[in-house]
Amino acid sequence: MVRIVIQEAPFDFGAEADQFAASRSDVGAVVTFTGVVRNLDGEDLTAMEIEHYPSMTERALTRIAQEASDKWDLLDCLIIHRHGRLSAGERIMMVATAAAHRAAAFAAAEFLMDYLKSRAPFWKKEHASGAAKWVRAKDEDEEALRRWQPKPD
Amino acid sequence: MVRIVIQEAPFDFGAEADQFAASRSDVGAVVTFTGVVRNLDGEDLTAMEIEHYPSMTERALTRIAQEASDKWDLLDCLIIHRHGRLSAGERIMMVATAAAHRAAAFAAAEFLMDYLKSRAPFWKKEHASGAAKWVRAKDEDEEALRRWQPKPD
Amino acid sequence: MIDVLYFAWVRERIGIPKERIETDATTVAGLVEELRAREERYALAFADTTALRVALDQELSHFDAPIKGVREVAFFPPMTGG
Amino acid sequence: MIDVLYFAWVRERIGIPKERIETDATTVAGLVEELRAREERYALAFADTTALRVALDQELSHFDAPIKGVREVAFFPPMTGG
User: Fold this and answer.
1) For residues A37, A41, A43 and A46, what is the CA-based torsion angle, rounded to 10 degrees?
2) How far is CA B79 from CA A110, A152, B42, B145, D8, in A?
3) Is-contact B128 B46, C-beta < 8 A?
4) Which residue of chain D has the CA closest to A124?
5) How far apart are CA A66 and CA A115, in angstroms?
6) pTM to 2 decimals?
7) What is the pLDDT of residues A95-118, one digit of tens each?
8) Do chains D and C touch (3 or more CB pairs under 8 A)?
9) CB-CB neighbors (< 8 A) of C76 in chain B
């Protein structure tokens, strides 16, 4: 089971978390991750602008959620990602994973986040202290993705 | 910031998740884990009974939450754990961690779960198909804890 | 006088959750020897201490630990929280 | 005819989000060469293709890939989702 939501409007994290996987009786472990627009140290962050590639985003997210579901036998999997202009403190996105045991739920959630960070077609622009700049991709996010690659025999 | 709740009554996961760390503007990443009483394969699990050691439990959980907070610079940390008799599908416990970045929030939540599994004074008894048996500690849970130990130089 | 607490199947085998006892033992292991000698239900509960954990005054400890000054000893199987 | 899309700072440098162009190029790299030759804003946007990513028909691809039969090419900086 995979659900993908891409929207400009805020989402209700509490309600989503509460309803997620609630109908499955074989779930033993649920992990959620939520990304929040944070105020940068000493800066006056007024907004985060998120651009995306509409015709690609849902397809890409559906495929990766399906891949995670297959790899870790997930019983449920949810990705919600906003775009548009968000203020500090607003929730940008969430993933949720449900599995029989905790190791699978944690690994799948981390995999989805590593993927979203550097392979899902979103671009963030920070508006702080009157200036706007595109967020640079971090080398450590590329590194993080590498740990999920199959090891050569 | 650390909050520990040990109670027999159900807790409102959606509301707890929604309110967690909501007042902090420096939070960029929130991870939650929820453990659920699951129906075992092919068995008719009617209930899970959880015994604990009241005078030890809160102290032990507070200390480990504080340790996780210090180690990963958590901005907020919550553990809720129920005891008593629970039915299949009920939420047993949750942890939530808030940090500036995702790696810290994930690592702290996994550490807390590994600790709770084999170091917090709770004991589970499964009532299924008319029989009751104490859940055996798993070797893999001991293994899981070992990864957090400082490596010898 | 020392309070001795039992949890989970240790409690079930011994048949009580808690008792206050007089002991001459100086270590947890010594206390376990005294308990084993009491009655068969104790001997059964403490047959294999590698299957047991011990806490002294609500802190996890080990069977070689001294119990001088300790007010509460708790015996239980490996924990299964989370 | 091929649709070419630009995102984030690539879009800002070129000044438009999308255009439909006629091309003789057979690979992404060939298309980039044609675009660079057009105007300075293209030359600037495509100055360093190691800083860019490309998708062909909504699938991540690479600059050596053929574009025969492709309907939509998108250029953008490394992604920063999550």
Assistant:
1) 10
2) 21, 40, 31, 18, 40
3) yes
4) D80
5) 13
6) 0.94
7) 999 999 999 999 999 999 999 998
8) no
9) 53, 121, 123
